[in-house]
Amino acid sequence: MRSDSVQNPLKNSMQNYARTIRFKDTDAAGVVFFANVLTICHEAYEHSLQAIGFDLKLFFSNAGSYAVPVVHAHINFLQPMFCGDRLLVNLNPQQLDPYSFEINYRITNENSKSSLLSIAQTKHICISGDRTKLQLPPEIRQWIDMANLNSDPI
Amino acid sequence: MRSDSVQNPLKNSMQNYARTIRFKDTDAAGVVFFANVLTICHEAYEHSLQAIGFDLKLFFSNAGSYAVPVVHAHINFLQPMFCGDRLLVNLNPQQLDPYSFEINYRITNENSKSSLLSIAQTKHICISGDRTKLQLPPEIRQWIDMANLNSDPI
Amino acid sequence: MRSDSVQNPLKNSMQNYARTIRFKDTDAAGVVFFANVLTICHEAYEHSLQAIGFDLKLFFSNAGSYAVPVVHAHINFLQPMFCGDRLLVNLNPQQLDPYSFEINYRITNENSKSSLLSIAQTKHICISGDRTKLQLPPEIRQWIDMANLNSDPI
Amino acid sequence: MRSDSVQNPLKNSMQNYARTIRFKDTDAAGVVFFANVLTICHEAYEHSLQAIGFDLKLFFSNAGSYAVPVVHAHINFLQPMFCGDRLLVNLNPQQLDPYSFEINYRITNENSKSSLLSIAQTKHICISGDRTKLQLPPEIRQWIDMANLNSDPI
After folding, report:
1. How far is D78 from chain A (nearest CA, A)?
2. ipTM of this predicted structure
């Protein structure tokens, strides 16, 4: 049986993030400043973690037992984004090896989902406070698994 | 008869803006960077304008027949804000004279509305493209009126 | 004897900060986004502290024995600032009481110093990690004293 | 004859940009927020254009006859950057075809230039106001040529 986003609001929150473009996001060319689109992708990642109960204050601090900083990012800009536009960011995390994962992002306009505005990727490696590589902890692996559940429906 | 926010979702949108604190909003002291709180106040203003149909792309460009830039701002920080916190910004615009208006903002935590985190104010003056002072246009005066409707209920 | 900025480069660094407006500072109206001007003022404060040897990484972290967060800010915008403009921020710190100080900022265009672009103020209170009010430590009082030395020349 | 940066301050300005990390650049993990490193790369590009006389206010507006927006960016983060750190960004633009160019960036700590902190790339395509692809104008081709002069010295 197919469990789509209507039936599964948690899964929807983990995979989708709606965001209105704000004046601060824009630059003097009248569109969103390019690096801010990666910031919006990161917001989608935060939103997804919070949806399954991560404490973001602790997670995004230097006080935890591990961190998963971005070690690589890339992004393509296909169409400009304007103040007031309502975007939808769809994200898809994948474990790469015991220590790292990547997240793929697809950004569309909420009113025109067939038209891609931007695609991006961030890669994250798990490290300790002294920057030693660590295996991904269970809660991160669980988040990846849950975010992918039913992505290949029958 | 009292028309409260449950009965009047438009008025609620014009007066209240919910916003989750994002990692980008924070700084190395672990809390929201002070100037970003004014940015969040401005988002509440954008949200309020959009609620009654302003086209933000046009309004916040240099292509319109007028602009209402911020000419003064002040802000008090009462309690720190952390990544993942869910804020509620309540805003209240008031016309000051034919040319200008101010907006007062009260920021609380959505889970603890009695406890103020910050209060702020922005003052805006209406100008033309060549920076001549202009009278506030009807749509701005209407927005101010609507945002204040029922704020003194009987 | 008058000790001016040519004779005293340290004092000049403590009181003046030159800053080129970047594309990221601007918004879709083609000028600097209002809250970013307060960010530029804070940069001048950081620059001043670094000039007399503060370790900014430690000072602006949550790992020190005290912090001096901004508790109030206000700002007036007198003229717009554009991408590529070269600004000069002049700052003047003053102790207010045993626990707090304020900094006054005057922003001019480096090519037209007589013409003010913006004036601003931040007020800071010294607190411990548990947010108890503390007396300003000697290094902060020394910074305030040094930044004001010779400001009333004979 | 070799023309190094001491002999050629213009070339040095076109290829190198020094930047102190500011508090606003950092996040609650205590280091520079990842997307802000791309912003710093863009600042180096602005600095380089300004060094040979580009009017940045006009260039980075929507009022010119062409624009060269970023259509792709990628970045690797090798070591963290902290508040107060003095960075050096070295940039190298290359024309790709009649319509586009890329810029490669290498970020080091000014006190330890052998140790890379980050490498990044932005790709730019020249378009008209209606988003038609245009050939790169002479001033952009000249900037690319000048920034590369002597990069292969004998």
Report:
1. 7
2. 0.92
